[in-house]
Amino acid sequence: MPDNSDLIKIINGCKNGNAECFSQLIDIYANRCYGYFYRLTGNRDISDDLLSELFVKLVTKIGSYKGGIFESWLFKTASNVFYDHLRGKQRYKGSLAAQTKWLESETAKNGARNDEQIDKVQAQLNKLDEDTKELITLHYYSQLTFKEMAQMRSEPIGTTLSKLHRGLQKLRQMMES
Amino acid sequence: MSNKNEENLKDLFERFFDPEQAQRAAQDIDKAHQLFQKYPAPQPHPSLIAGIKAEVKNELLREKTVSFRAMIYKTAAVAAVVVISITIGVKLLEKKTNIEKTVISPITSGTIDKNSYFAADDNNLEILFAEAEQIGDEIMALQLNENGDNEYGDVTELEMNFTEIKGDFWKG
Fold first, then answer.
1. How many angstroms separate the CA of residue A53 from the nearest CA in chain B?
2. Which residues of chain A fall below pLDDT 70?
3. CA-based R_g, chain A, Å
4. Does residue B49 sit at the A interface (CB-CB below 8 Å)?
């Protein structure tokens, strides 16, 4: 992870359309973003597509980053990419509920095919509602502070904290049972 | 994956929960973190990363082409606006000059040039005009009594001229 001044240089390079800077940015954030997408979808193929879409989107979107916490901006964009994907599937499948069920069934099918691909955390995460799942995943992969997360989600920090705590408590209970 | 705000968790929770609850919440979050570390998400395949980098490069090229094209279009549009503005400006200037020319020679009684007004007219009218002028001069001369005692003879002659002109005029 580069220090802040190096990161600013890389971001400025990206803003100027420097391919090498984009390459560095991908190296820095690809793993975390991939983990975020994978924990949300439970599917490697979809995560591959979403990761690719995110970085390609950054080429045109990076100009709209006007400073502040870069991770916050990046994961907000990642979150939008994920929800756009969900909405696209919703149009395709008919409803968000159908999409969630479809995603769950795909995850279950993948799990049945290859148990190693779906770990225990993923299996339990899929049982949580979308919002809680996204909050936990965001907290772990974005490494944002609670204040930054609350700002990103446009809600009071107390709400973010209690939602996350309840979600993690539930996840832990499910893992232990 | 370590979290940069891990150390402040307890302090943060204490702002919203009582100390016992805050401690439990911080412990829950710690344990969840341990779970995520125990079961890490898979990493993206290196070929995926290479593919994304290539795709980004292509997108950058496309973006540059698009912005270059946009710049050309903008330049062309600006050039067109400038040319149109100049054309309109020149036309307006020409119009203004014509108006000024007209204003320079206003129509006043003193500047009426009989030739310009009657040049295109019938020759008879010109003759009439000359005769009328002549009569006018004669009347002036009469008024000033330039012809001495023969004023009655002059008046008669003048009347005869008038009658002649009147006759010529109605004859066309």
1. 9
2. 90-118
3. 17
4. yes
- B1–A143: do the CB atoms touch at under 8 Å? yes
| Token digits of residue A100 | 């969630």
Where along chain B do its domains lie? 6-38, 109-171
For residue A116, the model assigns a pLDDT of 45
Q: Determine whether the interchain pair B35/A51 forms a contact, defined as Cβ–Cβ distance below 8 Å.
A: no
Interface contact flag, B43 A31, Cβ < 8 Å: yes
Token look-up 């993206």 returns: B44
Is some CB atom of chain A closer than 8 A to the CB atom of B13? Answer: yes
Judge whether A28 and A71 are in contact, CB under 8 Å.
no
Residue A49 and residue A34: Cα distance in Å, rounded? 10
- Mean pLDDT of the region B168-172: 62
- Dihedral angle over CA of A63, A68, A69, A71, nearest 10: -10
Extract long-range pairs of B14-20: CB within 8 Å, 24+ residues apart.
Answer: B16/A157, B16/A158, B16/A161, B16/A162
Q: What is the ipTM of this complex?
A: 0.78
